[in-house]
Write the structure tokens for this entry.
Amino acid sequence: MDNKEFSKPANRPVLGIESSCDETGVAILRWEPDAPGKGLLAHTLYSQIKLHADYGGVVPELASRDHVRKLLPLIREALAQAGLGVRDLGGVAYTAGPGLVGALLVGASVGRALAWALDVPALAVHHMEGHLLAPLLEEDPPEPPFVALLVSGGHSLLVEVKAIGQYTILGDTLDDAAGEAFDKTAKLMGLPYPGGPALAKLAEQGRPGVFRFSRPMTDRPGLDFSFSGLKTQVLLAWQKSDQSEQTRADVARAFEEAIVDTLIIKCRRALEATGARRLVIAGGVGANRRLRAELVAAGEHDGFRVYFPRLAFCTDNGAMIALAGAIRLASGQRQDETVQVRPRWDLQSLPAA
Ligand code: KG4
Ligand code: ZN
């Protein structure tokens, strides 16, 4: 390995590893500042959905063990897709948090050790920064300043992005995250894990106006979210109902409308408060079709533009981690040789990129 190449890590492909929860994702990306998506050379993903389905949720120990099984084969597959050998890599980026500690340790250990063996720099990536930057992988990427709505299984965040790495949290969830609310509500209506996408699919068959749930915390100023009460409202409505298939779809529709409306009300407030005209949506719930369509309509009405990643890059993936890592490696940042993960990690504590 030629150490002089260190001076130009930006020109050599970066391996990205995601293993924070129940998806193992690997990608290879060459940093192209003007069109990051063009630099994406490969991405592979293995979802553990089937593994956890019998338990109705993610079992952390099983997740860690499965990342151990899948990570190296996925890295080999990504290298083959890109037509590269492991020695062509110029850096390794891995999710270091937030997430499940055992799952994170698998990606961090493999990523850090691989970088050490190849004598290339490593970068510990914040999972939510990965989500936040995912829309940059698309054509005509958004430029800061913008507001980002990050809605995943673990987080519901409204973030003001003044520049890459300069994040101010405008709103957070006080209890359940948006994705968690989808998953828990789906479970109490008897839908299989993972409930979010299943509930969204069912909602498509629901009739409008049969049920109506509240839009939590929209009747007072502020940008925080609270979704756990909504879950209780749904449970009561569902228990009192005839529990037919059509009713289930009607309840699902009303629940989805309540979440989507709430998110849109808060996004509008955040745009108004910051004066931003660009809104980025990312994270698993960003794959929700109603949310995407209604946000675009709100943007057309109010005069702001909405940016989404493609569906596959809304949910967890290696490409967003490779991208976040490549940006920071290109600006000279490095992880030292310790293998360190942070199950909890404040997005606002990141250095500027
Ligand atoms: O970002 P992600 O893949 O993982 C985390 O970092 O949490 O998000 C997963 C979450 C799950 O709660 C899942 O139910 C939700 O995103 N989700 C959806 C949809 N697709 C995934 N929620 C609503 N509608 C969808 N279409
Ligand atoms: Zn995620």
